[in-house]
Amino acid sequence: MKQAVIETDHLVYSFQKGQKVLDDINLQVPQGSIYGFLGPNGAGKTTTLRLLLGLLRSENTGIRLFGYQIHRSRIEILRRIGSLIEQPSLYLHLTGQENLEVFRRSYDCPKSRVEQVLRITGLSDAAHKKAKTYSLGMKQRLSIAIALLHDPELLIMDEPTNGLDPSGIIEIRELIRDLNQNQGKTVLVSSHLLAEVEKVATHVGIIHQGKLLFQGTLPELQSLQHRHALLEIEVDNLTRTEQILAGRFSVFVKDGFTVHVGHSGPDEAALINHMLVGGGVRVSRLGAVGNDLEELFLQIISA
């Protein structure tokens, strides 16, 4: 495994005494990876990212970036990080180039970086347009350009595709790939969209209710999904269905006539159908369930 750019050691955080927002989080973000930090709203993603950046104060000393503890070397670490947390902060009355110039002076970067980050983020043609005329996707790319001005080694982004239309989502996705593959950046990106994370990430961490349920490479996640795939079955007798399948298969009741059943492939799907029909249950529909985030949580918990 490559050297970890980000490591947390049993990270715990509470906003109020006794109410844990994060519970025993052990992140390992390898150098050169695109790490998809996946979880529903309220799972603890933004809190984790704020702790990594030193934006929240924590008694936990087990946060290390580039091998250094954040509470001891915060300024040195932050010089090597670019970040975009929640909504971008832009001067809407200024052009894209003028926005970058303001931040360039704050970061004390070479003037040449403005043109470079405009090119990297695909905003060269819009450089002299006022930011208020930008689409949401363009504003997001301008915010990423600002985060790239000081040429950081690590880029941390919180829900960068949130609220974007399909075209904007594709643009951000391609930009993340380019930053990783062509610009040499390690990228940590949070999202609540499993399908989107699967399209761009090399590594994935899944957080739910403050706990890290899964961490590994994308192929490892996909292998888990394959081993614990779900069937959605419509039946006429829910009680009898549970009696027939209990003890051999994991059964999740969706509603009064539909169940989700864990299986490992086509052979078991055929067996499940055979068992139900043979047991007197009428099966009106049987099909594979798409791996959305809710179903994936159920699969991981029941694994």
From TrEMBL:
Listed InterPro entries: AAA+_ATPase, ABC_transporter-like_ATP-bd, ABC_transporter-like_CS, P-loop_NTPase
Keywords: ATP-binding, Nucleotide-binding, Transport
Coiled-coil residue spans: none
Keyword RNA-binding set for record: no
SMART domains: AAA
UniProt-recorded Gene Ontology molecular function terms: ATP binding
Ranges where the ABC transporter domain occurs: 6-234
Family in the record: Belongs to the ABC transporter superfamily.
PANTHER family listed in its UniProt record: ABC TRANSPORTER, ATP-BINDING PROTEIN
Protein name as catalogued: Bacitracin ABC transporter ATP-binding protein
Native source organism of the sequence: Dyadobacter endophyticus
Gene transcribed to yield this protein: cdd4
